[in-house]
Predict the 3D structure of the following.
Amino acid sequence: MNDELDPVRRLRADVPPPSQSARDAVRIAVSGAAESERAAADHVRRSRWRPSRFLAFGFAGLAVTGAAAYGATQVIGVGAPAPHATNPPVLRADSRTLLLGLRVPDPAGGPPWAVRLGISGSPTRGGSGLEVQIGRLQDNQLGFVGEDNAFHNDGLFHSASTAAALMTPANYSVTGHTLRRALRSLHRFDLTVPAVASAYRGCGTTRVRVRGAPPRQQLRAQEQELEKQLAFLRADGTAARRRARFTHTPLAQLVASTAYELHLTREQLSGWYTEPTFRPCPHHDLRTVIVGDTGPDTQSVTIAGPGLRQTERISANDNGLYLFITTTPFSFRHHYALTVTCRDGHVLHGAATPSAAGPPLTPNCN
Amino acid sequence: MVPDGHVERGSDAAALARSTSDVEAFSVVVDRHFAVVHRYLARRVGVDRADDLAAQTFVIAFTRRDTFDATAASARPWLFGIASNVLRNDLRAERRMLAAIARLDPAAAGDLAGEVEQTIARADAARETARVAALISTLDDDQREVLLLHAWGELSQPEIAEALAIPVGTVYSRLSRARASLRRALRDSTYETPAAKELNR
């Protein structure tokens, strides 16, 4: 055919065919999605007794408790600060923190929600780690309200330092050579088990003695192996990045899941194990937390799905992070849409099908 | 493995239906369409990004396989529709790439000494490439999407309509406007796209 489209057809007609690694990557990615689909189905089956806590939408969401019952005023009573973690899950001692300007009201009132970033390591020396800590804010301190596995349902505000194990409902560990890159990898987050387990273990959590644990010798060996794995992944070297690429899993997620396995192993070694009492949480006390990054030039973000439509304005000093707090439970079966308006007027759309291995579809203004 | 481009009627739908109980069945769809989808994405945003975006496209297809219209002859328009959605998040990357092509120095394409005619031909080709890239970059998003699905994705107008979930008449009109712009740009050597005007300012 000889027409005006010929020059278009010739344009970039010499792109090489996909490499074998690209073909392998898609197979691995699809396998991962299938695996996650199975896991999600299992999760739904196992957790039918409690509301959905998880969302994978290119970002992560989870429900936290103890929020709604204390909501009449902005300032509530203050309880003891959270104790330091015996096994600090992520944040290193050399971390610096940055409290973002986002203030998101809770549907039932009370202290607003806020985001604090913990940044550790040097961008020029092997990359840096970033922890996104989400919690309630009172007197410029981040913490949580009410029920958790340390303070139970006391209705008080508990501030939490970066060393507190239970400081937030979500701790996301990501690595990157710059803060910007680390933030951008946020929207690659799907469901992160450590994020839930390290800070929130369901309602009425108690610590119980470990029963039926593997022999201590085996646990010791497992602990050592996981420590090695974690060091290997945290080094963020070529081999670690290659592993992440071939498993189509963000390196930070591999770090987080390995850290969680290590945490569980150490818990078993200690002879105690923290687990939920399987008492359903009151629905009105549940919150779904949706967090993600759409780039520093974001003006506003709108999320829409079944029973949910919220718009949030993002200020310039929020580093492009958005945060929605809602009582609407998320479902793996529903479709959610994210509409992002950039400061230059561009409107970007991200469609999403929540699934544990859902691909990042968060639009980015950058 | 089924060669790229070979589509048996209904076989994609059958494979997708089977994949709800047998994940391996989805590999039929991957084998059949991965190369064309990847090639399309690579032309739009470059090979490196295409690897990621193609993987995303097929993961989305997998997670949404129950929404595929089982009466469709081929999954290709559906996959291109997903790829187009995925691409929307990378429109700026595409614009940057097209702008880079548009800034190509025609003289650089002919820097081999001797062979004057070949050098001139290469320079002409580079000039045309730059002009076409500049023009594509200045089309509005809807026109560019339709034009490139047609020219690079090799989809017919009805298939584009299926991919983008828009009426086929809309596809015809967008394609017609895009072609008219192209015709004018290629016929009139002094024609300057807005992007070119911006560069020359």
Remarks:
- Chain B is about 70% helix and 0% strand.
- The longest helix of chain B spans residues 116-138.
- Chain B touches chain A at residues 23, 26-27, 30, 34-35, 38-39, 42-43, 47, 50-51, 54-56, 58-60, 62-64, 85-86, 88-89, 92, 101, 128-129, 132-133, 136, 147-148, 150-152, 179, 182-183, 186 (CB under 8 Å).
